[in-house]
Amino acid sequence: MLSTVKHEIIHALGFSAGLFAFYHDKDGNPLTSRFADGLPLFNYSLGLYQWSDKVVQKVERLWDVRDNKIVPHTVYLLVTPRVVDEARKHFNCPILEGMELENQGGMGTELNHWEKRLLENEAMTGSHTQNRVLSRITLALMEDTGWYKANYSMAEKLDWGRGMGCDFVRKSCKFWIDQQRKKRQMLNPYCDTLRSNPLQLTCRQDQRAVAVCNLQKFPKPLPREYQYFDELNGIPEEDLPYYGGSVEIADYCPFSQEFSWHLSGEYQRSSDCRILENQPDLLKNYGAEKYGPHSVCLTQKSAFVMEKCERKLSYPDWGSGCYQVSCSPQGLKVWVQDTSYLCSRAGQVLFVSIQMNGWIHNGNLLCPSCWDFCELCPPETDPPAANLTRALPLDLCSCSSSLVVTLWLLLGNLFPLLAGFLLCVWH
């Protein structure tokens, strides 16, 4: 995989705990003191040259955990100037001291990657879970080595954590989840839904793939600092310490993760909306989805139902699906097959009723923010009346155009007979 090759090359070029002590400032001066032989102090317990606090600093965070407790949580921050600047801008946190390094995963992962909880799918986190991107933060680190000049125009957009503020980047995911609940807002990028059968589908944080929450039960209680839940739907209180996200190096924080469909153990397709080959079969496409390069993941407000005469079919796994979107002067348009629906505001419910392959597909979609996908967007307004007419039901059995034409022809033929009969009776 190309992303893995890039990942390892960046390690070799400078993103490595074994090289931190050799970084230089912009004037070429070592950021870590050297002995007469030109080498820094060697740390035998770590098996590498010891960096100075101009490169990495140890910080204690106040960490919210279950039972309304706060415990100390030790983190290591990379504090070189460009990294600090890019991290502050990315998270919108002007007091952020530096970018957190991974504190789990053992030798080779710990301190050698960005913290997975904060930069989930960034190319230089410690495991590949989904859609790796090389961000400005990693390019800043490479420039802060003192050995390179970064071309920031080559950076890829990282949505994870973008603009989420100091509480997101400096506190536990429990604190973030609790605050979002109090504000009655979505928990993104985290989640609190147990993976179950049927699946409760959601969207990946960047809205480019259908996803499921990776919250699961572990065989043993999690370490105290990673126990985040005071309650979970259907879970006894005594079992709560066993629950967390499946990715350990994300500090066990649960998040929505893309997945693959399998049949009898064989891979069928992935949930990435942009891959055309992931398009479901016609007779299994209950949500009238469309996969392809212009498709994104949208929330389904209700399960889609396929109807034909008296037959009704629905799929138990629902909650999100892939649909094409486009930008227009009027705002974001969602396309369901060949029918467009205008999103006048985020959270607007689209009432979908379309005909496809001899079936009527009925369901509801939630509009995302226009700014999630478009560079220019009009002010949000209430939806126009034209959008509301989409809710009018279709009926292949009683309202088909051929049936209407047939009825009119019958009436046309009967009218002269009826008129003649009335004239005879009159006379």
Q: Taking Cα atoms only, what radius of gyration do you get, to the nearest Å? A: 28 Å
- Judging by the overall fold, what is the CATH architecture of the largest domain? Alpha-Beta Complex
CATH topology type of the largest domain? Leishmanolysin, domain 2
| CATH level-1 class of the largest domain | Alpha Beta
What's the mean pLDDT score?
89
Order of strands side by side in the largest beta sheet? 13-16-17-18
| Poorly predicted runs | 399-411, 421-426
The number of helices is 7
CATH superfamily heading of the largest domain:
Leishmanolysin , domain 2
Global structural class: alpha+beta
**Proportion in helices:** 10-25%
Given the C-alpha coordinates, what overall shape results?
globular
Most strands sheet: 4 strands, antiparallel
Alpha-carbon distance between the termini? Answer: 92 Å
Strand content: 15-25%
Number of strands: 20
Topology overview:
Blueprint: H1 2-13, E1 42-43, E2 48-49, E3 56-65, E4 69-78, H2 81-91, E5 99-100, H3 136-144, H4 166-170, H5 173-182, E6 202-203, E7 210-213, E8 215-217, E9 243-245, E10 256-258, E11 260-263, E12 266-270, E13 295-299, E14 305-308, E15 311-314, E16 320-328, E17 331-336, E18 339-343, E19 349-356, E20 359-366, H6 385-388, H7 401-426
Antiparallel strand pairs: 1-2, 3-4, 4-5, 6-7, 7-10, 8-9, 11-12, 13-16, 14-15, 14-20, 16-17, 17-18, 19-20
